[in-house]
Each structure stands twice: as C-alpha cells, then as structure tokens.
Amino acid sequence: MLTMKGASHINTKSNIKGLHSCRPSTGVPLFHVDLQRLYHANMALALRRLRRDWLASLWQEHLVRCRWAA
Q1: pLDDT higher than 70, residue 53
Q2: Which of 7, 11, 32, 65 is deepest in the core (most CB within 10 A)?
Q3: How many other CB atoms are there within 10 angstroms of residue 61's CB atom?
Q4: CB neighbours of 14 closer than 8 A, spacing ≥ 6?
C-alpha cells in the first residue's frame, strides 16, 4: 500500500486548491500555510510582470537609440 505524507514531490501541488486548508491529524488548522502559499504565488506573479514590463521598456529604448544611430 502507498502512503503519502505530503505532496512535496508533486510538481503541480500548487494547483491543488486548499491543499493545507483542512485539519491534519494533530488537530491544528493549517489555513495560514495555504494563505502564505497564495501570497507568495501572487507576489511572484507581480514580480514577473514588473520584470517583463521593465525588459520591454529597455528593449524599446534600445530600438529608439538604434533608429537614431542609423
């Protein structure tokens, strides 16, 4: 029989809604773990978007400089 202690080995574990929202066998609720995961995922997404916008603006500035040089 296969016994799983957690989903840490599953790459798509972050897609499981409410993975930690139920009570474990100790009776201590883990809602805060789920909230932290969502917070970190949202922060990572925001940082990726900011970096993409920053790189796009750098590329546009580069293209403008190349047009003036030619």
Answers
A1: yes
A2: 7
A3: 10
A4: 37, 41
The structure's pTM equals 0.55
pLDDT score for 52: 96
Whole-angstrom distance, CA of residue 63 vs CA of residue 20: 48
**What was the pLDDT predicted at 35?**
86
Say if residue 56's pLDDT is above 60. Answer: yes
What whole-number distance in Å separates Cα of residue 56 and Cα of residue 62? 10
Token couple for 57: 């603006």
